[in-house]
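pls design
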């Protein structure tokens, strides 16, 4: 009983510590993944805290599929296609370059690490994690194309890196390497993963079109990642690419057949789910280090720090060299720079080059390295691979993550406001469509003249308000009028909320009735800009 109580107190302390870090992150203006990794690292050395070991399957199979699916689902297919060249360059070319560079340096510098172990390490640290980078860039208003490239890269490079990782681990376990076998595995992983993802996406879309039940649809969405990952993994194709393909396909198709209740519920569920899972993962990454260090007692602290610095530096420098070289030189030699294909600004390329943070996927891959080879011997340098991977994650998250805002400001990379412009254009077109439809419906018996006129005035004002944003001579009167109305509307909504609370408190209405009415008011409130 005492042991159980002790464990419960430790768990409560860890949960409170994680909650405190999450609360502190906005106040300190630090992305929460960075604070959680550092905080978890500090907690891991607190006396009495048990040494935690994160089962690799928990991330690779239980956690990774839904996280990848949610990222892919909310990715814009149009923007992904428009930036397919830089995304492909980073997700394929840079992954191969990083794996090779790390393997060469590790073999030469890290205690004569074997080639097989060195290539495994290279594949493990090759993929990026976009969470911290995209959080920083969105907060600072970085141009949308940079965010699209960084996030698109992270979606695809997980698949590329894990395919290469599987080839490297297989070679290390078997003790032999066949270029033909490796090439076949690579091709099948990509083609098979994409094909399985498309099939799963088509099947899920067909099922959801026949369902009108928000909880069931959201549940199907939550398990879709597994429906794509597990069959692809069983077929030895890329489960990551299968999940990403299914997510992008359904993200493009889902708004058409789903109801507004499903979309509202799904967005809320995904936002909370991904936040909680990522928060726990990054905290657990930090808590891993004490156990990792216990397995490396045969190496001096100085050697370990030196090796960690070398490998982390290799990862960072490879990206810093690769991005500008393969952004400008091929186009310069091929003569493709022109009015319709301008060279990207150097500052933007520099931001992409510095946004190469690593995360949970790398750690999960490192922990999933087999313990033994086919010959029965221990996998070469496995503990060292796990340690160096952790150091790369910690180094890139802390150093690059904390300095990325400074890099963005120094390079004077400013927002392009494309989202705001597109939103205004879309609202104008939507208002025009509503007014046109209203004109068609005015002849119907059930449409009252006063109602039609009131709605026509509403849509005309909305259209004029957003059209004024494209007028250089606009004095801001319409915008000010709209904001004043919204402030007044919010005051009135707050008054309604207060009355609902009083009615429930004095037993006039039930809690269920209060929640339903509160939801209606919340939806109205969410539409306001103020």
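designed seq:
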């Amino acid at each position: 009983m005492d042991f159980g109580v002790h464990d419960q107190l430790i768990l409560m302390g860890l949960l409170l510590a994680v909650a405190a870090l999450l609360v502190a992150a906005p106040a300190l203006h630090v992305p929460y993944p960075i604070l959680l990794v550092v905080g978890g690292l500090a907690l891991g050395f607190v006396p009495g805290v048990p040494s935690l070991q994160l089962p690799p399957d928990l991330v690779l199979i239980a956690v990774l599929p839904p996280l990848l699916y949610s990222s892919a689902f909310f990715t814009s297919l149009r923007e992904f296609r428009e930036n397919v060249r830089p995304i492909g360059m980073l997700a394929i070319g840079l992954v191969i370059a990083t794996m090779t560079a790390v393997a060469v340096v590790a073999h030469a510098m890290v205690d004569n690490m074997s080639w097989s172990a060195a290539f495994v390490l290279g594949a493990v640290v090759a993929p990026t994690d976009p969470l911290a980078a995209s959080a920083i860039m969105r907060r600072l208003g970085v141009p949308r194309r940079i965010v699209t490239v960084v996030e698109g890269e992270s979606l695809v490079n997980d698949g590329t890196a894990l395919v290469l990782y599987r080839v490297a681990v297989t070679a290390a376990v078997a003790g032999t390497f066949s270029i033909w076998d490796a090439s076949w595995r690579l091709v099948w992983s990509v083609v098979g993963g994409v094909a399985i993802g498309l099939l799963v996406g088509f099947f899920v879309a067909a099922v959801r079109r026949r369902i009108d039940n928000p909880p069931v649809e959201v549940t199907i969405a939550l398990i879709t990642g597994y429906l794509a990952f597990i069959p692809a993994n069983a077929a030895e194709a890329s489960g990551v690419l299968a999940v990403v393909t299914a997510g992008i396909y359904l993200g493009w198709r889902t708004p058409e057949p789903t109801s507004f209740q499903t979309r509202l519920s799904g967005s809320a569920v995904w936002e909370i789910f991904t936040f909680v899972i990522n928060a726990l993962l990054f905290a657990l990454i930090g808590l891993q280090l004490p156990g990792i260090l216990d397995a490396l007692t045969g190496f001096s602290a100085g050697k370990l720090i030196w090796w960690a610095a070398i490998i982390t530096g290799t990862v960072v420098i490879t990206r810093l060299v690769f991005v500008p070289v393969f952004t400008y030189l091929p186009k310069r030699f091929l003569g493709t720079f022109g009015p319709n294909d301008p060279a990207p600004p150097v500052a933007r390329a520099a931001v992409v080059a510095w946004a190469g943070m690593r995360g949970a996927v790398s750690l999960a891959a490192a922990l999933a390295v087999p313990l033994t080879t086919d010959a029965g011997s221990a996998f070469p340098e496995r503990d060292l691979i796990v340690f160096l991977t952790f150091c790369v994650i910690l180094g890139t998250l802390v150093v690059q993550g904390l300095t990325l805002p400074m890099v963005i400001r120094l390079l004077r990379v400013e927002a392009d406001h494309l989202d705001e412009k597109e939103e205004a254009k879309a609202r104008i077109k939507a208002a025009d469509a509503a007014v046109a439809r209203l004109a068609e419906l005015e002849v119907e018996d059930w449409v009252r003249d006063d109602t039609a006129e009131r709605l026509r005035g509403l849509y005309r004002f909305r259209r004029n308000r957003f059209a004024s944003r494209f007028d250089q001579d606009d004095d801001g009167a319409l915008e000010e009028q709209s904001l004043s109305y919204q402030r007044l509307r919010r005051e009135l909504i707050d008054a309604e909320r207060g009355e609902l609370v009083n009615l429930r408190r004095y037993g006039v209405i039930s809690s269920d009735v209060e929640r339903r009415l509160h939801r209606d008011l919340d939806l109205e409130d969410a539409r306001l800009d103020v």
